[in-house]
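For consistency, the fold was encoded as tokens, as this record shows:
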Amino acid sequence: MEKRPRIKKQIAVTQHQTLPFIATAAVNLVEDAPTRAAYVKALRMKGWTLQAIASALGVTRERIRQIENTASPSLLVHILSNPGNFPVPELEMREVEVADSTLVLPSEDTLKRLLELQPFAQKVRWDHAEHRAVAEEYTALLWHAHSVEGVTIYRLAKCIGVTHGAIRFRLARYGYIQPITGKSKAYTPIKDKNRVSLL
């Protein structure tokens, strides 16, 4: 599977930055509840965490969530246009390189074939000869979508309507991946005598 390209992204220096004194003082001085709610919403929109604002006001994160949900859009515009009275400081940011998170989906043909095979492949148990070839084709196609087309196992699971754990079990049983733990029977490899050649 080809590695996803790296892109540069701005992230907060720390997850839980403390709200600067100027904003802490300003938010505590607002006595009008609707205006305070709009100010809290403005801070949240800028990226400040529930915890940072909760610490400044001496309340819980859940209370901040409740407050921001009552914010009036018109008051929010007023807050954002008056930075002197309602300072909304920038978070301290840094630049990092991360994998491109562009959504990758299986090709139309792959997805169509997977959905055709799935009902039969899921009926196969260790001693069932019927649909064995279908189960192997289905598993090979899952591996193709993941390793060649670059679709994550989680995204594959969403596309075909199963859990990502079920896909991992299947790939491990058919020898495409090594299990993290061998304790689960679901990870027991299929015996050669129960395999069907796809050639």
